[in-house]
């Protein structure tokens, strides 16, 4: 054990060490408090995280453990732990504020394993960038790995900046207040007035269409008349407006419509990662398993 | 066109596919291509007519997705055949397609015309169709793995086949998952909410990633790699339909549409 070169054994032990470290953290400081990552904290953490990855990469020749992070013997055990923890997540009922396994997203061992995967991704991406030799191999590799790295890190860190509020709009009354997830009232930079709520049903009474004809007034001076359908949100000033609900007692005669307003400033970064992974998947299909040497 | 006509299309398609499979064994490549394509066209014309008569893509219920699965298995077989010329692949894809056709004949689960607003999206068809294709190819990979593990005692060159199948399957799995994320943003306001279906999709995806990475190791155990494929495919079943029976997912998944 711990004789160079390290093998899967060491890889699994490092992962187990992270699990124990996570348990210790969970016991001492409680679940991961994701709220503290709101801007600018997440920006600072992102920069710090990238710096740490760069440092690990630079010191890889000096510190064997750092070199090891770039090996399959580190990456595969990390993925195995991630799969096992995610399976546990899939088998247990999840709810925000649940304890330990019931709120896996705030469970330190789960979070640490995924952070570990992100570090490994960062290190192997840097190594590949420093040793580019064949675009046919490197481009798909970078699309897949860098895409995943970007999507994973920005989605996680950006989550604290995402705002999701519900606005109850009524006919003839412009509304600019919205309800936050905790129930607090938030004043919005946009006011919405419901012109008409639309509900259509099939012959058997099952729902066919929910939509709201609305008028939007923004602080930036826009005056927009539009229709918001399920699956067809409307975007204005960084807010996506979704059809969310209505007065179920009144049905098609509902005089109100509940809209959800979502702002996610990190979305373009996450989508960059997603589109890179999509391109990477296309490469994977085209090139297939042929690339092994 | 209605569901009662399915059996005629199914019989015609299976006969054509079987002829194609026989052609592949006998090295009659031209015949293998023509009859398999004709079988696919026959089967697809049924799907298309269902689509038209239902006035929505037939993708909502398990029975409807099985219809696509039966279609994609021979298509995946044909793609693999055209690329790597494995003689057995068409026989195998035909038999698997037949199994799913039989399931649909005995348990149709084809429903009415209704399509809830949440599913009325241009993402609906590509998301599910890409996933069904991935499942079909990965199904081929797992049968190959079972064959190598329990029938053929020694193998090396055959591992390349499972690799190729997994790469194609994983590529489509990735695309299906990411299409799902892009759609989720439009429909539910967020691209990833750790809904039980999403959690199990992530599990499945990661499991196949482990196989792909393990196979890159210069020195590794091939039998272990094949076992990974079997485990991964079990996890995939969980994602596909298993979560419908999972207590932890009851009532918490926004992915349940077929319960009337």
Question: Which descriptors apply to this entry?
Answer:
heterodimer, A: 293 residues, Tick-borne Encephalitis virus Glycoprotein, domain 1, 2 domains, four-stranded antiparallel beta sheet, 8 strands, B: 260 residues, mainly alpha
What can be said about this structure in brief?
With 293 residues, chain A is of the alpha+beta class. Chain A has helices at 8-29, 41-58, 64-68, 72-91, 108-130, 135-158, 267-287, and strands at residues 163-170, 175-179, 185-201, 207-218, 223-229, 234-236, 239-246, 256-263.
Folded structure, characterized:
The complex is a heterodimer of chains A (293) and B (260). With 293 residues, chain A is an alpha+beta fold. Chain A has two domains: 179 residues, no CATH class; 101 residues, Sandwich (Tick-borne Encephalitis virus Glycoprotein, domain 1), CATH 2.60.98. Chain A contains seven helices and eight strands. In chain A, strands 1-8-7-6 form a four-stranded antiparallel sheet, with no helix packed on it. A four-stranded antiparallel sheet of chain A has the order 2-3-4-5, with no helix packed on it. In chain A, strand 3 and strand 4 form a beta hairpin. In chain A, helix 2 crosses helix 5 and helix 4 packs antiparallel against helix 5. The radius of gyration of chain A is 24 Å and the shape is elongated. The relative contact order of chain A is 0.11. Chain B has two domains: 110 residues, no CATH class; 128 residues. Chain B is 71% helix and 0% strand. The two termini of chain B are 23 Å apart. The model of chain B has no long low-confidence stretch (mean pLDDT 89). Chains A and B meet through helix 4, strand 4 and helix 7 of A and helix 6 and helix 7 of B.
């Amino acid at each position: 054990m711990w004789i160079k070169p390290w093998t899967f054994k060491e890889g699994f032990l490092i992962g187990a060490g992270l699990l124990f470290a996570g348990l210790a953290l969970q016991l001492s400081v409680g679940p991961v408090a994701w709220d503290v990552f709101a801007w600018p904290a997440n920006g600072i953490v992102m920069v710090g995280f990238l710096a740490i990855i760069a440092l690990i990469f630079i010191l890889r020749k000096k510190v064997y453990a750092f070199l090891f992070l770039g090996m399959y013997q580190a990456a595969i055990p990390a993925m195995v732990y991630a799969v096992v923890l995610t399976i546990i997540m899939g088998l247990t009922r999840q709810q925000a504020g649940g304890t330990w396994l019931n709120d896996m997203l705030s469970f330190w061992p789960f979070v640490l394993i995924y952070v570990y995967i992100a570090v490994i991704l960062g290190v192997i991406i840097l190594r590949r960038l420093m040793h580019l030799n064949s675009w046919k191999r490197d481009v798909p590799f970078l699309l897949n790995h860098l895409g995943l790295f970007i999507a994973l890190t920005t989605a996680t860190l950006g989550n604290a900046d995402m705002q999701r509020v519900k606005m109850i709009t009524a006919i003839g009354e412009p509304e600019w207040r919205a309800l936050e997830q905790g129930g607090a009232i938030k004043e919005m930079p946009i006011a919405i007035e419901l012109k008409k709520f639309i509900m259509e049903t099939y012959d058997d009474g099952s729902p066919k269409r929910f939509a709201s004809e609305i008028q939007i007034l923004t602080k930036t001076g826009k005056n927009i008349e539009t229709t918001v359908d399920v699956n067809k949100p409307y975007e204005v000033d960084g807010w996506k407006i979704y059809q969310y609900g209505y007065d179920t007692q009144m049905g098609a005669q509902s005089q109100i419509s509940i809209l959800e307003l979502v702002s996610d400033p990190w979305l373009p970064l996450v989508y960059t990662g997603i589109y890179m992974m999509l391109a990477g998947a296309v490469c994977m299909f085209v090139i297939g398993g042929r690339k092994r040497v | 066109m209605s569901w009662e006509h399915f059996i005629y299309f199914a019989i015609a398609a299976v006969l054509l596919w079987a002829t194609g499979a026989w052609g592949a064994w006998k090295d009659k490549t031209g015949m293998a291509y023509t009859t398999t394509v004709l079988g696919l066209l026959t089967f697809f014309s049924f799907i298309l007519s269902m689509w038209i008569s239902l006035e929505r893509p037939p993708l909502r219920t398990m029975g409807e997705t099985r219809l696509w699965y039966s279609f994609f298995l021979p298509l995946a077989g044909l793609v693999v055949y055209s690329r790597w010329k494995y003689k057995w692949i068409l026989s195998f894809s035909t038999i698997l397609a037949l199994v799913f056709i039989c399931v649909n004949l005995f348990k149709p689960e084809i429903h009415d015309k209704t399509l809830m607003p949440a599913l009325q999206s241009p993402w609906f068809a590509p998301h599910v169709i890409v996933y069904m294709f991935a499942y079909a190819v990965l199904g081929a990979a797992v049968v190959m793995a079972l064959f190598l593990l329990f029938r053929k005692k020694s193998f090396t060159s055959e591992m390349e086949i499972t690799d190729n199948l997994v790469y194609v399957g994983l590529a489509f799995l990735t695309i299906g998952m990411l299409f799902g994320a892009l759609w989720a943003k439009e429909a539910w306001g967020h691209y990833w909410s750790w809904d039980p279906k999403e959690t199990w999709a992530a599990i499945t995806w990661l499991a196949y990633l482990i196989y792909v990475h393990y196979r890159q190791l210069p020195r590794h155990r091939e039998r272990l790699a094949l076992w990974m494929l079997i485990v991964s495919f079990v996890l995939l079943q969980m994602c596909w339909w298993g979560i419908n029976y999972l207590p932890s997912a009851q009532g918490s998944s926004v992915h349940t549409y077929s319960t009337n």
